[in-house]
Protein: Carbamoyl phosphate synthase small chain
Organism: Alkalibacillus haloalkaliphilus
Amino acid sequence: MSKRYLLLEDGTIYEGRAFGAEINDYVGEVVFQTGMTGYQETLSDPSYCGQMVVMTYPLIGNYGINRDDFETVRPALKALIVKEAENYPSNFRSEMSISQFLSQKGVPGIEGIDTRSLVKKIRRSGTMKGILIDDLANLDQVIDYVKQTALPKDQVSQVSAAKPYVVPGRGLRVVLVDYGMKHGILRELTERGCHITVVPYDTTADEVMQLQPDGIMLSNGPGDPKDVLQGIDLVEDLLGKVPIFGICLGHQLISLACGANTERLKFGHRGANHPVKVIETGEAWMTSQNHGYTVSTESIEHTKLKVTHQAINDGSVEGVEHESLPIFSVQFHPESSPGPSDANVLFDHFLNMMKENKLGGVTSCQKEQIFVGS
Ligand SMILES: NC(=O)CC[C@H](N)C(=O)O
């Protein structure tokens, strides 16, 4: 296999071997993911749009790529960085190796580098930009190029649905705003019988309300939430009209629309084993996470939001709810995919919220009768 190098903006060079697609001159943010399994879901999570993902688990690809575990059809990440990529996967569901998959989808990979030292570096210095190169010619110019290239601000428009579409069901009507949605969210709502209309990120509140939703779900998605102005406007216009549940980017948009602030984390939370405290019960949930930004704790004090979940590792905000309106959101991923399903109950909470809101003053006994089987 031919040589390939990862070059960071501070000039550090990691030598490894090429796999997957040919390189291009893409400059991405180098981030690390700590899941021990679930690489296929990570590869296909649109929230990694524009990023170069380092897997901390040393062997990636051992159970291959299968038909079922995709979170979207087109991977949005720009490179995969691993210690060892397995070329001979062994699993009854496997249809191809990770290298074949990445080649097909145009995503370059680099293997054989010391991912431990790379992750330590990112943890010390914070996430950095990087580039993959196949030779070391003109290094100074390449470093300048990496430094000068700004990270894109339009990732959501790259990964959002281009047109609305319907996933029919006989239950509650949900409008799901797609900022780069993981299909796990769709699966959770479909399992609960919802009739879902997925709409693009720039859909207006009037267009959403014409669909007569019982509730609105705001998906995860890539990039800085402050760049997604249509999303912030949409939540502002929808406040108080109908129940809203936000996940990850959706949570950040709700927080911004309610007057809180977001900030960049030094190196983010990406993995399938992030413990979160549920403030109300004191429980700890193990959660799946993938975010580089967070809602800042102090900024929440001046809003009508209250913190419902908190990261146990660093104390950052992991969930909020509105003090009077049926609106709540979480920074982590209750749809897991990959990872534990401790937080799955939040989808039931959303359904209950929609039912309560729809029924207004109806007694709980009548509600039982109306929703039998829903
Ligand atoms: N998974 C997500 O929705 C990520 C949200 C946002 N792009 C962040 O990095 O914080």
